[in-house]
Input
Amino acid sequence: MASAIHSLAIFEIGSADWAVLGACLALAVAVMLFIFYIQPDASDLAPHRTKLDQLLERRDTIYDNLRDLRFEYRSGKYSEGDFEAMKTALENEAAMVLAEIDLVTDAQVRRPRGTRSADGSAQ
Output
């Protein structure tokens, strides 16, 4: 009889063990819900911006900065020397961005797409 009680004591689960078991079960359910029922955001499915998109956005930002700089100069916030220095820096940056836009757009236009004969069939 004592051995039967001793063998039952081996399978007895304490309250701390139930807490761990419950936490594991809750984690497993959360993982299954995440995998099968959570849908990705639309932003996750949106195409990533191309190099050209990034350059065009940078160009627009520089133009906005130039416009703001001119407004602030006219309102007396900057001296003529400071204005000229900042304007020159922004114009140089704009020129570099525009040159890079030209390189990117030229590379896209010049990609070979196969030659076609006069009758329109691919060679």
In short: The first helix runs from residue 2 to 10. The two ends are 93 Å apart (CA to CA).
